[in-house]
């Protein structure tokens, strides 16, 4: 902050020639500090915007790469399932091998759906009950304190 106050003003506030800090009035010093602080805040906001734009660009690229990885993983799972059918075909008829793999996949999907439903039901209603209760308790405490002060 000392550098901000000691730095020369970007634009003179008066038409008078430059004076040292000790010759300037308190009002002039406060005005200079206010102007410099405003400029500093604007510059920091500009820097923050640029930094967030850069981070957003990297995040977008990263999300795209994750999406591509997910698509390739889905194809990989399909190929793995096909491989499983082919392996079972070595011991069973092809239709029976495909049927077994299909039934197992649907069974796993059903179990995952039930687990997912259970998790979603835990999230309903979507309100922070503990935080709301704490906030109500705080409000009640403030009301109580205000009533006690008004009686005194």
From TrEMBL:
Ranges that cross the membrane: 63-88, 94-115
UniProt keyword annotations, A-Z: Membrane, Transmembrane, Transmembrane helix
The keyword Oxidoreductase is assigned to this record: no
Compositional bias per record (Low complexity), positions renumbered to this chain: 7-17
Region spans: Disordered: 1-25
Superkingdom of source: Bacteria
InterPro entries reported in the protein's UniProt record: Phage_holin_3_6 (IPR009937)
Pfam families linked to this entry: Phage_holin_3_6
Protein name: Putative superfamily III holin-X
Taxonomic source organism: Actinoplanes lutulentus
């Amino acid at each position: 902050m000392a550098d901000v106050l000691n730095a020369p003003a970007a634009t003179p506030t008066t038409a008078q020639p430059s004076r040292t800090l000790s010759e300037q009035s308190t009002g002039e010093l406060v005005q200079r500090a206010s102007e410099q602080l405003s400029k500093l805040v604007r510059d920091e906001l500009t820097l923050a915007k640029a930094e967030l734009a850069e981070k957003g660009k990297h995040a977008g690229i990263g999300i795209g790469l994750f999406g591509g990885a997910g698509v390739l993983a889905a194809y990989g799972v399909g190929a793995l399932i096909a491989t499983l059918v082919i392996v079972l075909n070595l011991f069973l008829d092809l239709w029976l091998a495909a049927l077994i793999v299909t039934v197992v996949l649907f069974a796993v999907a059903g179990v995952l759906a039930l687990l997912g439903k259970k998790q979603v039901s835990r999230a309903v209603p979507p309100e922070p009950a503990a935080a709301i209760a704490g906030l109500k308790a705080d409000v009640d405490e403030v009301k109580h304190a205000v009533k006690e002060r008004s009686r005194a």
